[in-house]
Design a protein that fits this description.
single chain; 6-stranded mixed β-sheet; alpha/beta
């Protein structure tokens, strides 16, 4: 019986995870003993039913369940608990489930490796969206000593609305999109930031990876942003960290 891993989310048409891990298993010579599949569940209440087979060894978790999954897990890694979101689940030898967050490692690693890092690390960062991925991104940025301005459609405690951004752009260096705006098949969509105020001081990072260059990033370049970063390297980084956790 193959060791089975899979992705939980809804919908899952945008995901690269199945292809990535299938290719990884082939590269490691594990294709006969390991497999990766997609579990497209319309409600998080369907999750416990996935645990009914002994071959399940781990899951990745994506939109919209990175926060909703937490009450269904037996244990939470301290870092994931601090972030408040889980994107990787390990099935322990006794059958219990433990949640981790590898988005943090994938994002922070690519941010530090980006050649633009010296240009924006002394300024503030805008994080667009307040979902599970945003929580990991915010923690990763703050742990690098960069102040974060949280942005959402509606203002709230510690969160500003998009309408407030024109007054903030001069203090900002990094702008990160953690929303699904621009993701296939809705590729024309993009966050409503004031693109006309972008300068070479501003660097745009989109964690969306399908398409690689989103409308958000294209608009940034068209309006004079200093540079852009796609989400594919973050995907690889968080996936490799998930594999490390499953094998530990």
């Amino acid at each position: 019986m193959k060791s089975l891993f899979g992705l939980i989310g809804y919908p899952l048409g945008h995901s690269f995870s199945k292809r990535y891990f299938t290719e990884k298993f082939e590269q490691l010579g594990l294709q006969d003993s390991h497999a990766y599949t997609q579990f497209e569940i319309p409600t998080i209440e369907d999750f416990p039913a996935l645990l009914g087979t002994e071959s399940i060894k781990g899951f990745n978790v994506t939109i919209p369940y990175k926060q909703q999954i937490i009450p269904f897990l037996d244990e939470i890694d301290p870092a994931a608990a601090r972030i408040g979101a889980v994107n990787t689940i390990k099935i322990l030898p006794d059958g219990r489930t433990c949640g981790y967050n590898t988005d943090y490692f994938g994002f922070q690693g690519t941010l530090k490796a980006w050649s633009a890092y010296p240009h924006f690390k002394s300024l503030s960062a805008l994080v667009l969206g307040q979902g599970g991925a945003a929580k990991a991104v915010i923690a990763a940025i703050e742990d690098l000593g960069i102040p974060v301005i949280k942005v959402s459609r509606q203002a709230g405690e510690g969160v500003v609305a998009y309408e407030a951004l024109p007054q903030l752009m001069e203090s900002v260096g990094l702008i990160v999109n953690t929303t699904p705006l621009g993701m296939h098949p809705n590729e024309a969509a993009c966050p409503p930031i004031p693109y006309e105020l972008l300068t070479s001081q501003h660097y745009l990072y989109d964690i969306v990876y399908n398409p690689l260059e989103t409308t958000f990033l294209k608009n940034g370049l068209a309006h004079g942003a200093g540079g852009i970063h796609t989400g594919i390297e973050m995907l690889y980084g968080q996936a490799d960290k998930a594999w490390e956790i499953w094998q530990s």
